[in-house]
Specification:
One of its GO terms (molecular function) is flavin adenine dinucleotide binding. The protein has about 725 residues and is of the alpha/beta class. It folds into 5 domains: about 1-35 and about 105-195 and about 280-310; about 40-90 and about 215-265, no CATH class; about 320-470, Rossmann fold (3-Layer(aba) Sandwich); about 485-580, Translation factors (Elongation Factor Tu (Ef-tu), domain 3); about 595-725, 3-Layer(aba) Sandwich (Rossmann fold), CATH 3.40.50.80. About 40% of the residues lie in helices and about 20% in strands. It contains 21 helices and 24 strands. Strand 9, helix 11 and strand 10 (about 360-365) form a beta-alpha-beta unit. Helix 2 (about 15-25) runs antiparallel to helix 10 and helix 7 (about 160-190) packs across helix 10. The longest helix is centred in the N-terminal third of the chain and has 31 residues, at about 160-190. The protein is elongated, with a radius of gyration of 36 Å. The two termini are about 35 Å apart. The relative contact order is 0.06. The model has no long low-confidence stretch (mean pLDDT about 90).
Length: about 725
Amino acid sequence: MLRRLHSAPGVLLALGLAVVGLTGAAISVKPALDRLSTPDISRGVSVAALAEAVAARHERIDAIRKRPDGAMTVAFADGDMNGVERVDPATGAGLGPYKVSESFRFLTTLHRSFLAGDAGRAAAGLGALAMLVLSASGALMLARRLGGWRALMRPIRGTPAQRWHGEIGRFAIAGLLLSSLTGVWMSANSFGLLPQSEAAAAAVAASGGASAPVGALAALQAIDVTDLRELSFPARDDRLDAYSLRTSAGEARIDSSSGALLAFAPATALDRFQDLIHMLHTGRGAWVLGLWLGLSCAAVPALGVTGVVMWLRRRAARPRFAGNVSARSADTVILVGSEGNSTWGFARTLHAALTAAGHRVYTAAMNELQPVHTKAARLLILTSTYGDGAAPASAAKFLARLAVLDGKAPVAVLGFGDRNFPRFCGFAEEVSAALEAKGWPRLLPMKRVDRGSAQEFAQWGRDLGAALRHDLTLAHVAAPPKTQALELIEREEYGAAVGAPTAILRFRAPGGRGDAGCLPAFEPGDLLGVLPPGSTMPRFYSLASSSREDVVEICVRLRPGGLCSSFLHALASGDRIDAFVRANPTFRPVAGRSPLILIGAGAGVGPLAGFVRANEAGRPVHLYFGGRSPSSDFLYEHEFAQRLIEKRLTSLNVAFSRGPDGGAYVQDRIAADAPRLRALIREGAQILVCGGRDMATAVTNTLDAVIRPLGLDLATLKSNGRYVEDVY
């Protein structure tokens, strides 16, 4: 709901908000320019003295005004010539005609009304309201994403568009909230939607005596020029007319003969509040504030572009379902938890089969769980598991929503995963247990599908059909991902002597094009999906190179019986694979100069080698690497030696389980190096771990003990983005 509240006005009003933002940024420099060109108004000069000096130079004075831009002006008439001039507030000397910049007038009108009169003013007011909604919802979403308001300065992860959107939004959010809130108030006030001030001095008549020199009027002598807003002179031939004076304190009528105060209406709290709102929105009288608000407004087009890019990508990735009825009218609700969209394909097959059987089916992400879903005759949950038992992206909020949900419906849970992982379908098991704990009736026992097996999915469909008392055939054919042909150009072999064959493989686009085969831009730590012959299910390998290197590099260990690893190890130079890139922005060094601690074993060192290679700035990087034998599987040995010379790598600590010193593991090196690691973590170091799950678990246990004397734990470092893993 919060995301919809944020994205809907942003996408629909992107162009209009960009115009408001750019014009707001342009006119924000006006207070600073006025501050440079307008004389200071200092205390010590009375309004009477200023009026006397001005009156001495002109036949008739209509009014003296302090303009919003800080200029003191006089409206005068000399014979048949009328004019408005700028005056020195200290001496009353003329400074030339007062002119308003036509460029700024145009920009201001465009900003306030889109050059369309009252209709445009109303549109600008609605735009300010939309910006307020966007700013508030954006702040809430960013805080929620980063772990709370206290975590707003944590590193922002995600795609380039997500990172830019978040960083720009974090910079501009306070200014945009202030600008939009005050803009809404000013717009509502201009249309009479807010209470109006009634502070106006009574229209009383003067005494009728002969007019005294303005410099001799006691009431004007008592007012300092710094407090003046406007002084209107009485009509020349009307002795009953009085001076009208507006100051920051209120409005007064002053007798032109005696100088007595005839009437006074003090400024109300509403008047003062309106003045404050105007200053906060325009920066008039506070040029530094104006420039800050302008910079915030200048961020609006960039936020609009990145926001629309993110929206388009989400929309493109959103699965489409023919005949997807509303949740309220559905008898069957399918909720999907997916990280890489493959589970959505199974959901589409199920949705189509149930619809063909006469059911009214509604399909959505598990994150969208709502009370209305419990009104359906049945709820079917299809979910994958991310990493070591974690929720996939489209199901991350499901358990929290389930915990506060009243109502229940007959439910069946189908998990998708890989039996090679210790927590096979671990998240599906967690969901099933949570539903059982809340007393949801079982439509079917929980079932698991191994590695996208169409046969196991079809069998579950037959079981579901039996529960529904009709035949249900689920003939699922996975849609193959869009791939790019890559040609093997180089390989390095390691580990055969110790029973752990590992290869560093480097690919390039056929024909030697220098664009990595038109693959999307990628960085070390992103994933290369490889489709082995005869399979539609990709296997993923961490990339050790970036698209700037004109090569696609992965590190692959041969797994007994492994379909894809066997295929890759059998490749000869010139052979080709079908592959694609998937971004993995959560496994990447944060920007900056803080130290990096890289920990990997075996083939897991691949992306870490890529991080070292990319360290052209020479930030402190400390690598801990574990293997079996220094003579057999010391991956990247020569490259690491060169990187130490180049200062791209600060230190290298290796551990070999079959080494000449009796053998050690990477966690042993970490334990022995505890004091230095604690010092690095005090400096704000980020830790990145890549490799097998057993290694990662041992490293976690060791590091937890290392950092506890600092009053920290790994959970805290993980929440701050300072401890990240890529394990398999």
